[in-house]
Amino acid sequence: MKIQLEHKLDDRSYQLCCVACQHSFSSMRLRTMLCHDSGSIVGDVCTDCLNQGTRQIQRQFRVRSIELFKQHLIEDISLSSYQQALELSELATQPLVIPRFYARWWKQLSIFATEPQALEMTRQERANRFPTTGTQAL
Question: CA angle, corner 88, sides to 42 and 45, nearest 5?
């Protein structure tokens, strides 16, 4: 498994739920996603969990899977919860690769570098669509 960095194309902030700690967090330009080696997305990972490292993320998966397994033994929880416990248990045992600090920093830097170019292109497109006459509005 690996954490994949993705540049979001829109400016909106989204409330996401961290797949490791279950806390809500907002994502602006850089999205950090936990992915299987096949490329399928498991879920989003918050910055706090990323900063704590792979062992802590895997520990959180292990703790949550144990809690779900215990609930299954005590109560008659749904099959989907049991399957989620199995998946979390599997995630806790797989090796996890987190991008180094410099990789995350470089990705953020490249995002900020491309934003002014995109802004300028938008301004030029608007100027071409709505040409100004000899007078400008104050």
Answer: 40
**Predicted TM-score of the model (pTM):** 0.65
Count of CB atoms situated within 10 Å of the CB of 50: 19
**Distance in Å from the first CA to the final CA of the chain:** 55
Give the residues across from 25 on adjacent strands. 16
| 3-class DSSP state of 15 | strand
pLDDT in tens, 13-40: 678 899 999 999 987 777 888 998 888 8
CB of 16 closer than 8 Å to CB of 24: yes
DSSP 84-105: HHHHHHHHHHS--B---HHHHH
pLDDT digits (tens, 9 = 90+) for 55-81: 999 999 999 999 888 876 666 656 677
CA separation for the pair 65, 23 (Å, rounded): 16
Long-range contacts of residues 72-81, Cβ cutoff 8 Å, at least 24 apart = none
CA atoms within 13 A on the CB side of 51: 4
